[in-house]
Amino acid sequence: MKIKTKFKLTGLFFLVLLLVCSFALKAKAEDIKLNLTYPTFGNININYPGGNQDLNQIIAWLYYFIIGISGFSAFFMFVWGGFQWSSSAGNPNVVAEAKDKLTSAALGVLIVLSAYLILQVVNPELTTLNLPQIQIE
User: Fold this and answer.
1) What is the pLDDT at residue 24?
2) Domain ranges of the chain
3) C-alpha span between 46 and 53 (Å, rounded)
4) For FRET with 112, which of 22, 27, 42, 86 sits at 20 to 30 Å CA-CA?
């Protein structure tokens, strides 16, 4: 008896969730604007007013944002590893740890840049997202 009640409650929950989502989709996408000020990455401006806030532009902005953050974190790891190496005073354990940080940072930069270059060289259209337009009435 408990299993049937659990299935009924789960079904009721998903039915209510479906109804709430269907009412939320009634809102027009043009009326929903992001109210924050975002930095411009890759010449993509998603700020309102003046910027395009399509899903395509937001995903492209996130792509360039992640590339930028990974570059910044690699720079930080290079600085931290270099400082750790220079302040190790010849301690072999600290030098090995610093070398490991520098190697990991270089490998991370290599992976991010190779992913970016592969996408740009193979087909630059892979980095542009063209979603079909859906008319909500």
Assistant:
1) 56
2) 1-32, 34-127
3) 5
4) 86
